[in-house]
Amino acid sequence: MSRLNRQQDNSGNGLWAGVIVLCIGLFYFLDRLDLHLPHWVFSWPMLLIVIGFVMAARRKFQGPSGIILMLVGTVFLVDDIVPFAWDLRRFMWPIIMIIIGVYLIGKASTRKQQYDEYVVRGGSTSDDFLQATTIFSGSNKVVLSKDFKGGNITTVFGGTELNFMQADINGEAVLDITTLFGGVEIMVPASWDVKLDVNTIFGGIEDKRLIGVMPTPGKVLIIKGSCTFGGVDLKSY
Q: Global pTM?
């Protein structure tokens, strides 16, 4: 990927990072004005809700990361405002898992409308569309398609390795990944132009691609999605 394209991707990520930092700054600035507002307005759970809303809005509320962050903030906020007889926080993780489950089911239903559903566990494939679902296990996939169109990768409490070194793209392909308590390693040819648009919560993305290699025109891979309590590694050779 060229340095110019990397700068363009970073500028987009920097914009939303700036919005979040701006919200935090305004949050604490208003707190110092002594406006005699309810204490919960300037509490850290409310800050989580605001940050989660910004992240969810960026993805048009199509990913779980921002929604989960808003849920965590809401649970602690309600527990602080309303004195329940029982601890509401006990139900936080079960509710989060239910939301993630509903999201994955809805995502699978959407995939059926795009192409036939199948689960990839290992080996190689020459299919133009890739769907890999890894839950409490590992998956290692070599993609051989010479006209790769895109796919959906879901990794929950597991690991997924995708090797595109023998694949090719004609135009633009979109790879949608959802990672929760897991990791995804993606290996792509150095000539591909890769654009990253992945939301992270308590996770990270490591771009280990070669620097200074000019991408071939007409070979664009867009990686989007969410990474929560996990990691995504991107490599090129």
A: 0.60
Could you state, in order of their start, the residue ranges of all structural domains in the chain? 3-107, 116-236
* pLDDT on residue 2: 44
Q: Is the pLDDT of residue 190 over 50?
A: yes
The pLDDT of residue 192 is 92
pLDDT at 121: 44
Long-range contacts of 71-77 (CB under 8 A, 24+ apart): 71/95, 71/96, 71/99, 72/45, 72/48, 72/96, 73/45, 73/46, 73/47, 73/48, 73/49, 74/45, 74/49, 75/45, 76/44, 76/45, 76/48, 77/40, 77/43, 77/45, 77/46, 77/49
DSSP string, the chain: --HHHHHHHHHHHHHHHHHHHHHHHHHHHHHTT-----GGGGSHHHHHHHHHHHHHHHTTT-SHHHHHHHHHHHHHHHHHHS--SS-GGGGHHHHHHHHHHHHHHHHHHHHHHHS------EEEE--SEEEEEEESSEEEEEE--SS--EEEEEEESSEEEEE-TT---SEEEEEEEEEESSEEEEEE-TTSEEEEEEEEES-EEEEEPPSSPPPPTTEEEEEEEEEESSEEEEEE-
Q: Note the pLDDT tens digit of each residue in 87-133.
A: 666 777 777 777 777 766 766 655 544 444 333 445 556 678 888 88
